[in-house]
Amino acid sequence: MIExxxxxxxxxxxxxxxxxxxxxxxxxxxxxxxxxxxxxxxxPTGGGKSLCYQLPALMSExxxxxxxxxxxxxxxxxxxxxxFGSEEGIAHFLNSSLTKAxxxxxxxxxxxxxxxxxxxxxxxxxxxxxxxxxxDIRISFFAIDExxxxxxxGHDFRPEYRRLRPMIEEIGQVPIIALTAxxxxxxxxDILKTLGMTGANIFKSSFNRNNLYYEVRxxxxxxxxxxxxxxxxPGKSGIIYCLSRKKVEELAETLKVNGIKALPxxxxxxxxxxxxxxxxxxxxxxxxxxxxxxxxxxxxKPDVRFVIHHDIPKSLEGYYQETGRAGxxxxxxxxxxxxxxxxxxxxxxxxxxKPVAEQEIGKQLLLETxxxxxxxxxxxxxxLHYFGEDYNDENCNGMCDNCRHPKTKVNATDDVAxxxxxxxxxxxxxxxxxxxxxxxxxITATVKSYKHHELEEFGKGVEExxxxxxxxxxxxxxxxxxxxxxxxxxxxxxxxxxxxxxYIDQPYEILVSRDHSYEDTETDDDDIVTAGGKQNGGGAxxxxxxxxxxLCRTIARQKNLPPYVVFQEPSxxxxxxxxPTCMDELMRITGVGAGKAxxxxxxxIELIAKYVEDNEIERPQDLVVKSIVNKSGLxxxxxxxxxxxxxxxxxxxAKGLKIEDVICEIESIVHSGTRVNINYYIDQTIDSExxxxxxxxxxxxxxxxxxxAVKELGEEDFSEEEIRLVRIKFLSEFGN
Length: 736
Description:
By secondary structure, the protein is α/β, with parallel strands linked by helices. The protein is built from 33 helices and 17 strands.
């Protein structure tokens, strides 16, 4: 038993945290660890996991060591504990962000008996100096937070977590409390086994969060949809998750230019920036964090009102963990995910090169995510089943999109029985895909090699309207209804349960609805209607477009230039869609930089403004997503190299490119309205008379086509590269 300075638990709860009663199983959990027992806690986000180790640590003799995976989480927890106590040193963290002087202070406070909670990263426990120090102090217990990181079947596997048990044993034998919000039955087994806690007291709360609304939308016009959604939640806090750091940065910038107070958060930012961003979110100086999964674990903000996934997560555990940030105070919590099967294919590509076993695990986790996204069943039921929990309500009171807008269900009693019989016929040794192929009468190499085309069930599933998607839905329903189980150890082989075997003999009515189809979704954000991007199907105002072309020709004649030097047709077409009526709006049109807007823009916005007023046109500004200036690293590098007058051949070689690739990038820069001066390079490589002849051609030509220029000037005398380089000079000098 841990020695405690024991007034009643409820008195300590009141004294340290100001609460008058415990939530759920908190009291039993705390008593378990105070009694010196290994304790395993599975409790959803918002259930009060932290208090389960914080209170016993404050009550016990010595220091509790809390193993935590994230520096941001440690800082957040330490700040919270310090607010409850009078001593600044009551809680500390020990990680790579501290200076030597700060580490010395931490050790002094621990040795003096002031510190009750010490938060450490698992990596810190591998350092001999830390193990040696901890061996000589009094430790009340170890708390392993985010314990799912131990399992390679979990959504956030950390190899260093696998080494915790031997490190703890080296420090000393004390009780362990392991805590997680997300763990499938397989992950639970892994945690107990790896930490050597097979005799632990287990406390498992329901995974159900009644206040969360779950919705899946097709990934179409995703950035526009996100901006619309956020703008309908004024003043509310939200988190938007993206898979890549690049997408995080781009989306955060796009939200900002559209008037939303947002900041990016990912592991590539320095620790100070991340800490400042988190503080601004907690203090509500910003409304939205756009983040990779590096953000949010353990953040103590109870009133996050929405969590949006721009990209489908890699696993349902990850999804549950991230959506768990919403509505921790029991209030409104909306969980929206944008889904396209293309994202699943991308994630599968990312796995290539990893060990085969790791790839198989990753694919299994992805398949579960696909099942959740595409199902038309109650999403809550599917989600809870994944975590080994039965949810028996007919619907979830409309707290998911499928229950709020249900699809028509049909009696699938016979089809469920046929699926179960087929699983039995293939001897429970195959995955869902193989079972579907047998039902549909599809002969593959595997089907043929096992002679499954000779089975009685082969081809029995071929009926009008019944395709692989239908049988997929039936199989998913059978799994959720516990008639089939997926053998995780064998990467998803379908097995008959006891109930499934009974169903074959005595079937009963089961209703199934078709899965959602997301085949027509678009995943390319460049296809969004943006004030600075491509059009998305919306037709240009033909009358205005004609007027803009006439104006372009008029100005070109006045300046003695071809019309394309003023504005190219795609820019005019976009003006006829977006109706820009001020310089700021005009500069967001594709190919219109600040220079071009200043040089040619005024008559265009005057014409558009008059046209809008005369025709009483309601401009689509509420639908316009303002785009951010997107200068890729390569473009920036090229512009800087030109400013330094570096040889373009050297620039190409430095980046492992061909000279043609660099010229393409420069053309792209010039077409967007940026002026570049490559005269130094042109003068070295092209005769001045040739330059004049090419410039004269483009000044008189109605087209800027290179192919036409080569044909007209003669490919024997002028190379394509020479013509392209001088065209860059011409466009830069006369157009930008």
